[in-house]
Amino acid sequence: MTRRGREDRPAPAATRRGRTGLGMLVLGLGLGLAGAAAAGRLARSRKHADIHDASLRRTRDGAAILGASVLMDSAMEHFRGGYENRVMYLGPTMAAASVAASLSEPRLHPGGSAARVAHGACLVTGIVGTGFHLWNITRRPGGLSWNNLFYAAPIGAPGALSIAGLLGLATEAMAVRQEDRRTTGRALAALSGLSLLGESAEVALLHFRGAFHNPAMYLPITVPPLAGIVLVALAVRPHAGGQRVTRLLLRIVGGLGVLGTAFHVYGVSRNMGGWSNWRQNALAGPPTPAPISFTGLGLAGLAALDLLDNARDRA
Amino acid sequence: MTPDVGLASHGAEEAPRATAGRAPDVFSREGWVPMREHCRDEAVDFVIVGAGCGGSVLATKLAEAGHSVVLFDAGPFWRPLSDFASDEREQEKLYWLDERISGGDDPIEFGANNSGRGVGGSTTHFQMVSLRFRPEWFKSRSALGYAVDWPVDWKEMWHYYAEAERAMSISGPISYPWGPKRGRYPYRAHEVNEAGLVLARGAEALGVDWAPTPLATVSAPHGKSPPCVYRGMCKIGCSTNAKQSMLVTYIPRALAAGAEIRDLAMVGHIETGPDGRATGVEYHRDGGWHFQKARNVVVSAYSIETPRLLLNSACGRYPHGLANGNGQVGRHLMVHANHAVWAEFDREIRWYKGPPSMACCEHWNYDDDDPSRDFHGGYSFMSQGPLPSDFAGTLVGSTGAFGMDLRERMARYNRMAGLKIVGETMPQAENRVTLSDETDAFGLPRASVSFSYCDNDRRLYEHSQRFMTRMLEAAGGGNFLESASTAHLMGGCRMGHSPEDSVTDADGRSWEISNLWICDGSLMPTAGGVNPALTIVANAARIGDRMVRLAKRGEV
Ligand SMILES: Cc1cc2nc3c(=O)[nH]c(=O)nc-3n(C[C@H](O)[C@H](O)[C@H](O)COP(=O)(O)OP(=O)(O)OC[C@H]3O[C@@H](n4cnc5c(N)ncnc54)[C@H](O)[C@@H]3O)c2cc1C
Ligand code: SF4
């Protein structure tokens, strides 16, 4: 046998990795979009004289925050999964579209607009995504088992994209139907209330997986569902009162989004190597982009309250 | 910044670390925690020999109840973060490799498979599988018709299993398919790796239950332990502290409660006084022999070293060794049959990822009625993830492969999966530890061990190999390979109902000397078909509570 030098050794077969380049591209694109949209938003006049317009804006901001959370979260989680299936690019891409659409101003008359199409597409993508995640869960041995619910594709995650889309569509409808605040207020209260309940259910599952090892992990499964229930109750019986408590609860929910992010940042640091090993730990630890979605839903809830309050004043 | 990975320090092996009022902080790279120290000439309440499952737990219980305790271990006091390397050869330092004479029809191989040496005992390199005994096994003779009954009720043990699982933050499934209902495991089960899913697919195809294995490594942060990083180095020592060994669970608790630990301290003799009671231990540390006085001596040195120390402590009054008037010390030594079947798959498995045994099957521990069952006792089996040189050893041992042949087989390493049993063997009086004429570096006679399988043991492991082959086949594997080995040690100084056929009573108190106790795996009257550590920990916790209660009544 002849000795072979380094140069003429055959190139090693490439080890299979995720198409990380494209993943990063999607992430970068999304960030760019979000940044541009935020800049546009800043340039806009901030004051909305009218409660209706202000609520509309608030809801869309909420949807944008939710979309941004989905964007980052799905980009990271699908990156972790190596974008093994091409449809995995859809999650972050649509979430980026959702952010952009939500930050734009709604049209005042019916008819198609890019934003409306984007919101609708997000709604559909979320539903299809849930189907994909469910398939991913059930095809593993054990089927719909705890182990698969904990570790296969997260069952509740794509739903957040649907919610972002729904919130966007709701604001489009609000923009067209300037009157009848009670109806829009009730619809928005129901939507944000149910979304809070759904989000909390997802958090409950994942914090249960983490064995509630930190007592603070109970916070997002107590306050937000409570706020969700009161919101739904308000949607059903708008005259029943309790607005003040609901408002307080929603403010706390909004705060929890920020606090939760801080806790998740800390959670990542508790993994081996902490943040200095961020490449692994940002993916292995608690998802840092996830908790802020509560802030988005809290905003939508507050907007619903404003509408209902305002409707009462006029009545 | 994290220092370089893979650099191993040898400080722990060169000189004792637990000295001058401080002991290593196992959660740091070079830190310390305060440690209470005791005077050699003043009798402490308890001297405990061996800081493994038995010794660590007992020391914690006794110290937390306010007793003065000195815990000896022959091995080093590691700081996993700085002392453990990701290198199979380097980490052989965790094993008890001092020579033992091994004989019988089926001589046991010692070292990596069954004995550790160091504070934390064998749990620094155990594979963290934490299963409970089947309740009926505590009454094997009366309920199932083989071996002997334990002098302990299963309900009491069930209570202590729960305590042990809490203390070791076991990550286990929400519902466990076998045995009576148990409370929720403190942590959720880990994600089952591909090697475990092979077991799962096979089990589902054959229609038997499987479960994610309850493991002593955390699936979320716990105190100063980060969650498991699934790098699969468990058997050679976990360098992240995710593994809940005695070293990072009970040992810190024992220290905080005021126990003193003496590392690199080999106990050579237990002294007895004119009244026949134990007075303390003679031990070798820092280059010389010393004597520590004690009101009680507990031996927790595991199934070979516990009998060896008792036999080595023979004196005029006890010519056959301590607690051995009835000749029971060293007898009824058991192992677990550790037979395995390996298979190749078309796809990549990468079985080294994650703890080695993430899925388990206890079907044959609980199914008594299957017509194919031709043996007493039971076996469980788990998915496998041997590190490369470990597996190369298995290949060489079972096929004789060598050179290019071995290399070619090892090239398929990433596409392999395997199933391995923990198979109950019967307690036999002739499977025993005695003393040899050879002496070790301390001048102490070495242990001589004799072990032979009985027919029942053989039927059991042959049955398991047939069954596991079927399962691997059902999971899509081919090109099967069988291997044989043993794991774990149990018995050697069993507890029992009467002084005729056992060494201690149910409290671990030797029948012969009232202040000489045993508390470790050697107490186990039967082996059961599950890994022993959790049972040893639970039993030690039970004995600890008993001793504290007895002490309160002045009966210690
Ligand atoms: C590779 C491996 C994997 C395992 N995997 C599992 C598993 O997955 N699940 C499970 O349940 N069990 C497992 N076990 C078994 C388990 O670790 C042991 O059964 C258990 O640790 C025994 O506890 P013990 O207290 O009786 O003895 P040990 O934990 O072995 O402790 C005995 C200690 O006594 C010390 N000692 C001995 N003689 C002297 C002396 N004369 N003076 C001073 N000190 C002395 C030794 O240094 C040692 O540290 C595994 C074991 C090994 C080796
Ligand atoms: S796989 Fe987990 S338990 Fe095993 S050595 Fe790595 S971190 Fe420790």
Tell me about this structure.
- By secondary structure, chain A is mostly helical.
- Chain A has helices spanning 20-43, 51-80, 90-103, 114-138, 146-151, 157-176, 181-209, 223-236, 243-269, 278-284, 293-314.
- Chain A has two domains: 27-38 and 51-178, no CATH class; 180-315.
- In chain A, helix 1 (20-43) runs parallel beside helix 3.
- Chain A is globular.
- The model of chain A is unreliable at 1-19 (pLDDT under 50).
- Chain B has 556 residues and is of the alpha/beta class.
- Chain B has one domain (10-552): FAD/NAD(P)-binding domain (3-Layer(bba) Sandwich).
- Chain B has helices at 11-14, 53-64, 80-83, 140-144, 154-167, 194-206, 250-256, 302-312, 363-366, 388-399, 403-410, 455-474, 533-552; strands at 22-24, 32-34, 44-49, 69-72, 101-103, 171-172, 187-188, 211-212, 260-262, 266-272, 278-285, 288-299, 334-337, 340-344, 359-361, 379-383, 416-424, 432-439, 445-450, 478-483, 486-490, 516-518.
- In chain B, strands 8, 13, 14, 15, 16, 17, 20 and 21 form an eight-stranded antiparallel beta sheet that branches. In chain B, strands 3, 4, 9, 10, 11, 12 and 22 form a seven-stranded mixed beta sheet that branches. A three-stranded mixed beta sheet of chain B has the order 5-19-18.
- In chain B, helix 2 links the parallel strand 3 (44-49) and strand 4 (69-72).
- In chain B, helix 5 (154-167) packs across helix 13 (533-552).
- The longest helix of chain B is centred in the C-terminal third of the chain and has 20 residues, at 455-474.
- The mean pLDDT of chain B is 96.
- Chain A binds chain B through residues 140-142, 146-147, 150-151, 208-211, 213-214, 267, 270-273, 276-277, 280, 284, and chain B through 1-2, 173-175, 186-189, 191-192, 197, 200-201, 203-204, 210, 212, 219-222, 226-227, 229, 240, 242.
- The complex binds flavin-adenine dinucleotide and iron/sulfur cluster (SF4).
- Flavin-adenine dinucleotide binds at residues 49-55, 72-75, 112-118, 121-123, 125-129, 235, 266-267, 300-302, 305, 309, 488, 520-521, 531-534, 536 of chain B.
